[in-house]
Amino acid sequence: MHIQGMNWGMVEDLLTREDRCVLPLGCTEQHATLSLATDTLLAERVAREAAEGSGVPVFPALPYGITPTFAAYPGTLSLRVSTYLNLLDDLLSGLHAQGFRRILIVNGHGGNTPGQGWLGEWLARHPDARVQWHNWWNAPRTWAAVQRVDPLASHASWMENFPWTRLDGVPAPEERKPMVDVAALRQLPPVKVREVLGDGNYGGLHRRPDREMQLIWQEAVAETRALLERGWA
Question: What family is this (predicted)?
C-alpha cells in the first residue's frame, strides 16, 4: 500500500487498526553505468514488494543521503550529517505524532548509517515506539544470497544491476574490476576519489544474468517482509 495511492482520510482510517509503516531511505549518487537513483529505486521497490498485501503503508523513499565521497561525479548530491539527522528526526517524529508506533526503515545506502547510530537517541525520547533499521542489501539472508552468486560484489557492481536500475542504451562493461582499497579511498578528497575509481564501480563484474539477480531479489523481499511481520520487540 503506497502512500501516493491514499488520501489523508484513508490514512486516518488506517491508523484505527494499524500502527506500522515503512520508510525507505535512498540516495542520489554515481553508480557507474547505472541510474544515479539506484539506491532510492531499490529501497523503495523492496519496501513496496515486502509490504504488498499487508495493509501496511509505504512512504515515498527519501531520495537524498550522505555521500560526500562522490561529490566530483556530476549528479551526485550529498547532505551534511547534521542535516540528515535533523531530517530523520522530523520524519520519525511526524510519523509518531500521527500515531505510527512501529516503523520499519528500509535503507538503501551505506552512507546513511550515521542515522542508525543516532536512532537510539530518538527512541530514548519516544519509549513507546519501535523502529527497525534494515540495510536491505547486506542483511544476513540477502548478503548470503549475493555471496553464493559471486563473492566479489560491491558498490555499483553487478549486485546493484537490476532491470529497474539500468539505463536504456547504456551497455555494461565486460571487465571484472579488482576490488578497490575502500579504506584508502575514504581518506581521499572527492576529485582524487574519481581519479582512482574511474567509472565508479568499486570492484567486480558490472552485470550478471537476470535469473541470478531474481533469486537475490526474492530473498531480499522475503527477508524484509519477515521483519515487517515478525521483527518487533
Answer: Belongs to the creatininase superfamily.
- Whose CA is closest to 208, among 170, 153, 155? 153
Host domain of residue 24: 3-230
Phi, psi values for residue 28, rounded to 5°: -120, 105
- Reading the block at residue 204, the C-alpha cell is 567486480
Q: How many domains would you assign to the chain?
A: 1
Which is it for strands 102-107 and 20-25: parallel, antiparallel or unpaired?
parallel
Cβ atoms within 10 Å, residue 167: 11
Q: Domain with 166 in it: what CATH number?
A: 3.40.50.10310
Q: What is the pLDDT along the chain (233 residues), one digit of tens a residue?
A: 799 999 999 999 999 999 999 999 999 999 999 999 999 999 999 999 999 999 999 999 999 999 999 999 999 999 999 999 999 999 999 999 999 999 999 999 999 999 999 999 999 999 999 999 999 999 999 999 999 999 999 999 999 999 999 999 999 999 999 999 999 999 999 999 999 999 999 999 999 999 999 999 999 999 999 999 999 98
Q: Are 227 and 132 in contact (CB under 8 A)?
A: yes
CB 154 within 8 A of CB 179: yes
pTM: 0.95
